[in-house]
């Protein structure tokens, strides 16, 4: 027997990188590789990794918004968690009349996430940000144990510059304001539900997730200070958005149920599962409360934008009761619109 | 959607309502048995459009609501066990038991899952041979064939880890019990279309005859409901008491024989307690002897605890119009829409909730209304 | 109770229990067709918790609507707009 | 038998709120309650819930930094995930010479998280932010299924105003710079490890997590443009921080091993588990690379601050090899300092 | 820390080194057997401070490194099974098998856990009666008593779900094998202090005598190591070949009899393959018959797949100084510190890694050095 | 191989195997003392993977150091700084 003692020395990680490992979040070489090879390219500007990014003096008021994205499944008809994370925050900035100038992107990754999925999602973040004309300037990546995350969670935080004319707030609704919606509701939430594990649906529904800041710019150009409130009716759906505005502005809102556009397959999904489409989450539309004298101009401007060709007038702001939203039914009766209580569950009755 | 949209046409609804207006000459109290019908009536405001004197009472036709407290507590106890995957239709998850609900069990670590169909629970049992899968089989006659098929399926697959917690209830005994009550005001019934799609309406014929009460098998869309009301009022006005079928597109007199046969094979009649009503003889289904192996109640014996409902709630009187919400000691304090003690505080349409949402205070009295 | 929604059978599979695919205006789901042996591809069925419980009778459906449409519109008659 | 049909109507969620439920993230009433009763009070300014917060024109260059906090356990000796999430981001801003002006806080909560823990953590976020003099201006709360998160993850994003004199970057190290460390290293990482489930240690170690922006202000006041690089050696520890700076600045760094302060119990923990203390994460200290002529003044200024009384000179920037960090051992030999490769694992040999 | 800090004193180290300087008159090649000692020597740069001609060769004393590829592959196969909780000391998790490592198994969903002590693995078996807990029992004589105790404990608790994958190795047969090699250059050994704390040093006495080679039982701190080297060189210079004990504070000649008895009870001698060395007769431990019930190899039979090491690696020649890293075809391309093909690329102290970190390119030749 | 760290026994529990608490400069952990029956509270032991494998002999430890301290410091002697 020949002995080569040297050949018996300590081996070291020869890691395959087909899946995320805990070590990818350790702050060491594996992490540097992950950042350098997978995450940074295309997403962040080249240069040294800094603790914080520098934004040159924006010269005006800013909007700041953050949202965590935890959607399951992470790929769904019409989109994925990456683009959603960009659109969601760009839209929240837009809802204050702001144009996005910088995004911070923070990932929590589950050990075992296929690297190919991370690449795909990261590319989607990069592409969505580029499409929105906003730079991702800083980010963070953590890895947690398998079973301590559902693949990937993304928190995006956006900084926006508020258009000088804009004074948009949930508290600004005034009696007589027109309530506008930029397009059909319910597509996003039902698209997600239709592919959610266990429900077993094949869908003809795709999420309408998209950025709305250009639409908002067009609306502000047309309506100026007449644009009182902007809101993207995400979680909680149209009902929550309207009730929140009614409460914040201490007004009533009356909506004509039949005027609210709902795509046919969305109606079908809601019928089948016993859901209220007004409680279903949206990602690609907004509601606007606009002074009556500006409403026509704003609605016309909206309809020139591809993201709002089907914009509609759906209701009016009333004197109250404060915080109360009512729906005028097709039969002409009025019902109080209630907020979803807990989560949405399929019903049998 | 075909067969839905055309039955929601407001123009045709108006025609039916005018027909009703010209038909009704006296006050009548109708009960729609089914919660699905109640949902349409309240949400669309159909009750507000009825001629003066035509009053709708909302029946006990919600299998979720009538599932007895004790059974909800049992479900919670079983779902809390290690190694159990507890499957349920979504609406049972929020129903409060004595000390919480199934969503709370899930939040505390229980494996509680929503299924769209009971066959999904069977699939879960196949996929998790080392776990016990328990399905909460609630429902009326409409749901019984589906739940029965799941049990048959599990039995034919020899699944030892699949069982059902059965709390099925039947409509005709409930109607009879309502009619037997000394203070009954119901003069006609809209029978539940989907229950009759399975069962047909032959069971209702002796009831209509014996109690001299019109029964109209009715669908769920606005036109269905208004037409059903028109048909019932027309019987009342002309002194008839028959079973009629408004929901002709889906219901035949003898129902669905295959589905009924499967119910009969898997289940057998039993006495059952209805939440808010009490025990009604032969008003429920339990597993038949042949399928007892899949009975969750025998597999997971649960210590029978004393169950309790709120004592302060005066829901019955409020809903019969004899007292106001503001007369209730709990109104606006212990009882709010988010923490209801009784049914009328439950949804925006409930009397107490409507009062509360409208900001009416305790000082308000009947006179001020 | 008993949410039941009409959908069109687009596919029937072999095997017991009888299963098939039902289309609800673009949304499709597998449903058990064991209780509607007479229903075939193209037929509408009422689906409850994943089970078809009844075949929709097209002729009866049309008849119901025709009956309602035949009711004169009181308001329109008053206003003279009824054709 | 008396029948009361009305009493048989539909009951509704009578939820106990001792634990987080999925419905708390649904955008409905439960969520409004959670925000209104638990999260917002003390954390966010009163007023309507808006999609984005408005920051008045800051009038200067900004720093932006984001970090996800996923620490297990969430309560540890010396701190908790809440204060860590504030300190971590405040410190990252400080590492660019910025004073924090606004924080965005995003929670991902696990269904089943005891409400009392959430309150405690939320209070800790609020207190830490107040202690740092920075306002939390916006936030987000999501709830995921039980088993899809380890209790709570927090992403904080900070906006800071960069001090006019500051020009701090990882790329600014120059040959001859003094390498300073603000205090003993290793306390945070070993405090976490010592209480991590399964290791079974009772520790005399507490995390030193704390904000460093005031220390940085003092350093900039003393050293001005002579402060070239600031870095908080968090994940990856001292070794990663030094190597990253050496790489970004294309210089070499030589550290005197014996000059690096390490508390006794930290040494013990590292001995016992076979860890390299230079790889252990820190949260309460920073390294600074300072022009030689400014080093004494900066070091003196640091020592006047309570968070840096034991600040030390630990090494020098050399001409290279570029990116190479070497340690002078107590025996006087030199060794190449390597980056942690993957995660830190207890060793037996 | 008491008993650590005082043995790291650089001033005393200098005194010992000057003592060594004055003792050593000729070149000697010493091997420290233990990886822990290697760690101190390389990290503190002790080898750089030795007098010219005194050369340290790093021995096979890392139980992690010498665990045969086949056993790592077996561990990976078992850890990948459903229902298994695979427990290991942290350092085994990164050791590459033929197609991955245990951390990769964990990333792909295997339940792989790091334990600090084998008793924790036993506790896991108690806490998870429905899972199979497998502990990877690697180590030299130092670790064998701990691992043996875990097996005894599991047996006395009657745990049917606890087993061990045993890959224990023994030091004296390895020393003998090294001395038997035709190209052996080692003239003295520093024996591993902690191995001897358990075993004593009587086993080394016949080796020292038979091969005329000094063996010094040595501790792990800089002063221990330099003193051990001084003691070995003094023997070499004076022509002695004895077993001496530098690590007197922890090691007695007969070791720890209780620990040895437990090893003898639970384990029995076996032939074992050492990674990078080959099979050495009677150089390992396996479970004794009495404890075979807890043998993971019989409980989880693994298809024996052909295992393979890199063929291009010239580690042996590089470490004997006959070739340079830049002569290796894989250097800097297929083989880098993050993706090492052989031992010298493994840690910053390895020759290949040192070359690579210093940026030396393939064009560099021996002359340029 | 075989990371072994000296720690002081601060507590010995009843039962088999013999367990106790060992203090490592402030860090404490339970360790198995079954193999060091002679070691009592206050004694230092070498702990490896949670097992005490040897009691530290204080006298021998001191002797080792004394021997090394007795070596004249060549450099200091050269420079004349050795006392
Ligand atoms: S649960 Fe309530 S809402 Fe649902 S059907 Fe029953 S009564 Fe109607
Ligand atoms: S694994 Fe490597 S570093 Fe650890 S003791 Fe063995 S040879 Fe040394
Ligand atoms: Mg940092
Ligand atoms: Mg937001
Ligand atoms: Mg948002
Ligand atoms: Mg970061
Ligand atoms: Mg997962
Ligand atoms: Mg929003
Ligand atoms: Mg950051
Ligand atoms: Mg940071
Ligand atoms: Mg949000
Ligand atoms: Mg958890």
TrEMBL record, chains A, D:
Give residue ranges for domain PurM-like N-terminal. 50-162
UniProt xrefs under InterPro entries: HypE, PurM-like_C_dom, PurM-like_C_sf, PurM-like_N, PurM-like_N_sf
Every copy of the PurM-like C-terminal domain together lies at 175-326
Going by the entry's taxonomy, the superkingdom of the source organism is recorded as: Bacteria
Give an example GO biological process: protein maturation
Q: Which NCBIfam families does the UniProt entry name for this protein?
A: hypE
Record family assignment = Belongs to the HypE family.
- From the Swiss-Prot or TrEMBL record, give the protein name: Hydrogenase expression/formation protein HypE
Q: What is the source species?
A: Stackebrandtia nassauensis (strain DSM 44728 / CIP 108903 / NRRL B-16338 / NBRC 102104 / LLR-40K-21)
UniProtKB/TrEMBL annotation, chains B, E:
Give the matching InterPro entries: Hyd_form_HypD (IPR002780), HypD_1 (IPR042243), HypD_2_sf (IPR042244)
Among the GO biological process terms of this entry, one is: protein maturation
Could you cite one Gene Ontology molecular function of this protein?
4 iron, 4 sulfur cluster binding
- Superkingdom assignment: Bacteria
This protein's UniProt keywords:
Iron, Metal-binding
Q: Does the keyword Iron apply?
A: yes
Q: Which PANTHER family match?
A: HYDROGENASE MATURATION FACTOR HYPD, HYDROGENASE PROTEIN ASSEMBLY PROTEIN HYPD
**What is the similarity comment for this entry?**
Belongs to the HypD family.
Output this protein's name. Answer: Hydrogenase expression/formation protein HypD
Q: Which organism is it from?
A: Stackebrandtia nassauensis (strain DSM 44728 / CIP 108903 / NRRL B-16338 / NBRC 102104 / LLR-40K-21)
Organism phylogeny: Bacteria, Bacillati, Actinomycetota, Actinomycetes, Glycomycetales
From TrEMBL, chains C, F:
Q: Which Pfam families match?
A: HupF_HypC
**Biological processes per GO annotation:** protein maturation
| Gene3D superfamilies in UniProt | 2.30.30.140
Recorded hits in InterPro entries, A to Z, give: Hydgase_assmbl_chp_CS (IPR019812), Hydrogenase_HupF/HypC (IPR001109)
Lineage, top-rank taxon, reads Bacteria
**GO MF annotation: an example:** carbon dioxide binding
Q: Give the UniProt family note.
A: Belongs to the HupF/HypC family.
Q: Which NCBIfam families match?
A: hypC_hupF (TIGR00074)
Task: Kindly provide the name given to this protein in its UniProt entry.
Answer: Hydrogenase assembly chaperone hypC/hupF
Q: Which organism is it from?
A: Stackebrandtia nassauensis (strain DSM 44728 / CIP 108903 / NRRL B-16338 / NBRC 102104 / LLR-40K-21)
């Amino acid at each position: 027997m020949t002995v080569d003692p040297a050949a018996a020395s300590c081996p070291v990680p020869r890691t395959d990188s087909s899946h995320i490992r805990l070590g990818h979040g350790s702050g060491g070489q594996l992490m540097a590789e992950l950042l350098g090879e997978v995450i940074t390219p295309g997403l962040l500007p080249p240069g040294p990794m800094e603790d914080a990014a520098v934004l040159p003096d924006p010269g005006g008021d800013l909007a700041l918004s953050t949202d965590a994205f935890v959607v399951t499944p992470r790929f769904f008809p019409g989109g994925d968690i990456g683009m959603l994370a960009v659109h969601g925050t760009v839209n929240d900035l837009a809802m204050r009349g702001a144009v996005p100038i910088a995004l911070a992107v923070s990932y929590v990754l589950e050990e075992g996430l296929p690297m190919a999925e991370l690449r795909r999602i990261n590319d989607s973040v990069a592409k969505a940000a580029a499409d929105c004309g906003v730079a991702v300037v800083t980010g963070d990546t953590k890895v947690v144990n398998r079973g301590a995350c559902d693949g990937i969670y993304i928190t995006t935080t956006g900084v926006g510059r508020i258009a000088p004319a804009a004074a948009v707030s949930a508290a600004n609704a005034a009696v007589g304001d027109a309530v506008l919606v930029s397009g059909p509701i319910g597509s996003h939430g039902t698209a997600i539900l239709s592919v959610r594990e266990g429900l077993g649906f094949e869908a003809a529904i795709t999420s309408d997730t998209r950025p709305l800041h250009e639409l908002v710019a067009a609306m502000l150009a047309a309506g100026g200070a007449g644009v009182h409130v902007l809101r993207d009716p995400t979680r909680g759906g149209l009902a929550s958005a309207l009730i929140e505005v009614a409460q914040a502005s201490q007004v009533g809102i009356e909506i004509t149920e039949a005027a609210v556009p709902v795509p046919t397959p969305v109606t079908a999904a809601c019928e089948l599962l016993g859901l209220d489409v007004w409680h279903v989450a949206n990602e690609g539309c907004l509601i606007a409360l606009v002074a009556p004298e500006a409403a026509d101009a704003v609605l016309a401007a909206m309809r020139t934008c591809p993201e709002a060709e089907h914009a509609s007038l759906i209701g009016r702001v009333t004197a109250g009761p404060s915080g109360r939203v009512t729906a005028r039914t097709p039969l002409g009766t009025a019902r109080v619109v209630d907020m979803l209580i807990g989560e949405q569950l399929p019903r049998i009755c | 959607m075909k067969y839905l949209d055309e039955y929601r046409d407001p123009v045709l609804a108006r025609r039916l309502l005018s027909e009703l207006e010209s038909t009704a000459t006296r006050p009548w109290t109708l009960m729609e048995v089914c919660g699905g019908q109640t949902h349409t009536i309240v949400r669309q405001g159909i009750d507000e459009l009825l001629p003066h004197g035509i009053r709708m009472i909302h029946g006990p036709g919600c299998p979720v609501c009538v599932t007895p407290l004790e059974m909800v507590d049992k479900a919670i106890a079983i779902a809390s066990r290690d190694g159990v995957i507890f499957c349920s239709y979504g609406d049972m998850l929020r129903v409060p038991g004595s000390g919480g609900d199934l969503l709370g069990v899930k939040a505390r670590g229980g494996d509680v899952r929503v299924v769209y169909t009971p066959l999904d629970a069977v699939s879960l049992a196949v996929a998790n041979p080392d776990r016990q899968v328990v399905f909460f089989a609630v429902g009326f006659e409409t749901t019984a064939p589906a739940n029965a098929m799941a049990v048959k399926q599990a039995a034919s697959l020899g699944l030892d880890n699949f069982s059902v917690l059965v709390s099925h209830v039947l409509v005709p005994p409930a109607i009879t019990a309502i009619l037997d009550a000394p203070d009954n005001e119901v003069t006609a019934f809209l029978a539940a279309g989907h229950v009759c799609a399975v069962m047909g309406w032959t069971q209702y014929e002796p009831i209509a005859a014996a109690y001299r009460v019109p029964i109209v098998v009715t669908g769920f869309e606005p036109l269905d409901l208004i037409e059903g009301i028109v048909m019932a009022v027309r019987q009342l006005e002309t002194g008839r008491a028959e079973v009629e079928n408004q929901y002709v597109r889906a219901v035949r007199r003898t129902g669905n024989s295959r589905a009924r046969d499967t119910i009969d094979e898997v289940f057998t009649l039993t006495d059952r307690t209805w939440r808010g009503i009490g025990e009604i003889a032969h008003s429920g289904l339990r597993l038949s002897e042949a399928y007892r192996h899949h009975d969750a109640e025998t597999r997971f014996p649960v210590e029978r605890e004393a169950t309790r409902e709120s004592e302060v709630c005066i829901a019955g009187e409020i809903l019969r119009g004899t007292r106001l919400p503001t007369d209730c000691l709990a109104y606006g304090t212990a009882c709010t829409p988010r923490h209801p003690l009784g049914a009328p505080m439950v949804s925006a349409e409930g009397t107490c909730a409507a009062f509360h949402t409208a900001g009416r205070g305790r000082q308000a009295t009947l006179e001020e209304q | 109770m008993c949410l039941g929604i009409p959908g069109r059978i687009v596919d029937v599979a072999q095997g017991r229990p009888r299963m098939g695919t039902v289309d609800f205006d673009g949304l499709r789901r597998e449903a058990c067709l064991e209780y509607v042996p007479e229903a075939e591809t193209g037929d509408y069925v009422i689906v409850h918790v994943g089970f078809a419980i009844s075949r929709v009778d097209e002729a009866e459906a049309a008849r119901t609507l025709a009956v309602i449409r035949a009711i004169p519109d009181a308001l329109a008659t008053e206003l003279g707009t009824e054709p």
